[in-house]
Fold these 2 entries.
Entry 1:
Amino acid sequence: MRLDRFLSNFPDFSRLDARLLLAAGRIRVDGRPVLDGRFEIREFHRVELDERLLQAGKPARYFMLYKPSSHVSATEHPEHPTVLDLLDEPDKHELHLGGRLDLTTTGLLLITNDGHWSRRLTLPGSKQPKVYHVETEQPIGTEYVETFARGLYFAFEDLTTLPAQLEILDTHSARLTLHEGRYHQVKRMFGHFRNRVVRLHRESIGPLKLDPHMTPGDYRSLTEAEVACF
Ligand code: URA
């Protein structure tokens, strides 16, 4: 953005004020006076009026990542590479995850620097459906469908899970839709039937599907329409 535009966007400066401040040499960019309003400022420029810092607002950033099973859903980890290591972006310390997946779980993960947006995704009341593709060690029984739809009691949290929809795809695989995100929820639900989950993959969160062109470890920015889903 041009420096004069940047200045006149501040509610306390008119366009004339901005021009006068520039002409008087009172505006500094990265410590140097800049007199020319056409100067292009970038996100990381430090703009000052006398001793006052006029920081440019950091643009919001939103990414979808295809989490591979090798990377942990965390911003730092002592043992494993983190999903942030997969991003070639500046200022990664400003980013956080909109929800988590277990280490070996693959699929859709959202990453942003917009705390309001990620809170809308992750708040327990938000009830954004999350769809998982599940593969199990033992055959999946038809009785699972009703049990998951009724809800399962989790003694540790003293709660009953919200009704979840199970679509059995074949003997050892299914698609499960959850409307909440409890700790290890999918594994614990199948664990109720002593059936170990051997592969777990998140396909979608709300209306947002993992981009079919992506492979594990890929990421891309969300489109405006995708950001507006939440
Ligand atoms: N449920 C699980 O058990 N693990 C995940 O990673 C996500 C949901």
Entry 2:
Amino acid sequence: MTTIANDPFALQDPALLRRQPYVDGRWRSGDGAPIAVANPATGASLGEVETLSPAAVIETIDAAERALPAWKALPARERANRLERWHDLILQHADDLARIMTLEQGKPLAEARGEIAYGASFAKWFAGEAVRAYGEIVPTPARDRRVLVLREAVGVCAAITPWNFPSAMIVRKTAPALAAGCTIVLKPAETTPFSALALAELAQRAAIPAGVFNVVLGDPPAIGKAFAAHPAVRKLSFTGSTRTGRLLLAQAAEQVQKVTLELGGNAPFIVFDDADVDAAVEGAIAAKFRNAGQVCVAVNRIFAHESVAARFTERLAARAAALKVGNGLDPDTQVGPLINRAALDRVAGLVDDVKTRGGKIVAGGKPHKLGGLFFEPTVVAGAPTDACIWREEIFGPLVTVTPFRDETEALRLANATEYGLASYFYTRDLGRAFRVAEGLQFGMVGVNVPFVSSECAPFGGVKASGIGREGSRHGIEDYLEIKTVWVGGI
Ligand code: ADP
């Protein structure tokens, strides 16, 4: 296919680039203020997207409500077929989708491709769950009665997604909703709308009916309020900051909507004295610097046993310093830019804070010489316990290493946070693997492994990190309501 000269996207399939909200099966002209989108690697404009007024968002929810009965009544196999088609189309267009993502979000192209495949895997997984949403027949105390437990679609769902995984978070929410027989109205992050709209284009091609999957853009607080106030919306699924999550949870109280919240993290990474230190270094690099550290399951705090701390820190610092920082479109790039100026300033502020309090910078520590939104991969040793990085989610390419004496102290330090999303530790002692996995107050634990997300495994947090689980056979539960049917006179 031809590409337009000077078109930064230069897609093989230019029709994937959409600039309008997707409402009731159509691309709808905006009636709100347009949003400008920029490439964080270069600052160059990627153009604008049109947005909707609150009234148009309400009309979108109305459309999702109208589409609900037919979609819910469609045999599960039919819904699954559409999800499988969506999965196949996403993979067929993976190169274009990855390019859109790198341009608007900044992550290295290889990571963007990985995210597209990861996101698509949820469409396939939940196509499988759609046809297995079994009910129950319960033994009852009376001979002439039966109790049936049905699992029904919750209804119209609303979803709000972040910019750090602009594609996968959308499929991870939309696929289980559609599998369950729900319809959905999605508001993606304003920074990364093109990835969301390209998924809508492919949903349309996958014959997902009008009104079943809708993408709205506009003023986030106004859209959040519209979601909370509309009586048809029975569920909200949100991935983002704990601050916004708290606000949305409070708003959901008004109509007692079900909620799934995937919020912030403050992941510990413990290296025990019996660990394979080289594997732990590689694990820490992967779990920290992927997506420039802008990941809710990214490592924030490393604790290394005092007998291995010096060796571990030295190797980690050397590996971090050698990471190639640059434009995500460059195939050598391992760490891309931060999403915007505020993110860069926040990371720089955290580094200044820990330095002032006596922490030692052992790698990086300042904005990268490339300028713009690039920051050096940074490792800090001996961060004092009053430093801000102990409490705050870092969301950038910065990590601290702190020595500990024994298992009890490691667990105490790791658990000393309001968050409880991901945690990691490295050990070769089987007994310790069980004790520590059980002692960590986190929704997910990686033992000798730096990744904790896959379509086959529950993903989610405890404490201030959220409510509910996504992925796995549990992921569809949040989109299903239980209905009990008593049958008498048998
Ligand atoms: P971040 O600070 O990393 O952008 P947010 O939690 O603010 O994290 O953003 C995650 C998503 O929540 C984005 O889509 C954003 O537009 C949306 N959002 C932010 N504030 C609100 C709000 N008051 N109501 C509804 N959505 C919001």
